[in-house]
Amino acid sequence: MPMETLRSSIPISLLRQYCFCPRIPWFNEVKRINPGDRKWQQQGASYHVRQSMLMKRRQLSRFGFDNGSVEFNVQLRSISLGCHGIVDGLIIKDDEVAAVEFKLAGVKPQRGQILQVAAYGMLAEEIYNRPCRQVFILIGDRGKTYAYNLDDRLRKAVTATLSKITSSLSNPILPDSSATDIQCGQCEYYNFCSDR
Predict the structure, then answer these.
(1) CATH of the domain at 94
(2) Which domain range does residue 183 map to?
(3) Is the pLDDT at 135 greater than 60, yes or no?
(4) What is the mean pLDDT of residues 175-179?
(5) Distances in whole angstroms, Cα of residue 54 to Cα of each of 40, 75, 146
(6) How crowded is the C-beta side of 157, counted as CA atoms within 13 Å?
(7) Torsion of CA 60, 63, 66, 70, to 10 degrees
(8) Can you give the three-state secondary structure of 18-66, one letter per residue?
(9) What are phi and psi of 180, to 5 degrees?
(10) How far is Cα 154 from Cα 162, in angstroms, rounded to an integer?
């Protein structure tokens, strides 16, 4: 994808990666370094399929809704926000929409995961022309549910982070990183960082 196209539409997954380490989007999108398939990617894909099947049987009341429909793996794109991606699930009602993301591992959602699902919610409300007031992250096999209000503070955090990503992808210089040794130890781009 040409850089001009990239700058006009950022993959939403870069929000999560940028929060983990600002260098990951840069290595991936600017340097075009692909570390190859990782074992956890296949595990994550299988987990998403299972959670989608389970969610079809779950009651929407767990999300605070008494009615609505659920769609899975919905492609979203926004010209105004300059980003795109595929959300794991959308709860669609006549008067609102809510984004749902499944996460295989973790104790509680991290900042990047929250920004990612919030961005999906913002795109969904633009596309479906109805408000998104809440977004949800389900973690683990039992799908422990975390709800977040899509308020002004969270919306501003999404747009500010998208702006930072756009800026870093426009720069040929490797971004600074505040990643810890623990983060670096689990990063597939570790070998490409000359100062680590």
Answers:
(1) 3.90.320.10
(2) 3-192
(3) yes
(4) 88
(5) 21, 21, 17
(6) 18
(7) -40
(8) HHHCCHHHHHHHHCCCCCCCCHHHHHHHHHHHHHHHHHHHCCHHHHCCC
(9) -85, 170
(10) 12
- Say yes or no to pLDDT of 163 above 80: yes
Q: What is the pLDDT of residues 18-27, one digit of tens each?
A: 999 999 999 9
- Give the containing element (helix H, strand E) for 187: none
Could you give the CA distance from residue 184 to residue 80 in angstroms, rounded to a whole number? 34
CB 134 within 8 A of CB 64: yes
Number of domains in the chain: 1
d(CA 192, CA 11): 22
189, 191, 159: which is closest to 23 by C-alpha?
Answer: 189
Integer Rg of the chain from CA: 17
Tokens of 115: 């920004």
Residue 63 above 60 pLDDT? yes
pLDDT class of 107 with cuts at 50, 70, 90: confident
Query: In the chain, which residue ranges form alpha helices assigned H by DSSP?
Result: 3-8, 13-20, 23-25, 39-57, 111-128, 152-169, 181-185
Alpha-carbon distance of 14 to 5, in angstroms, equals: 15
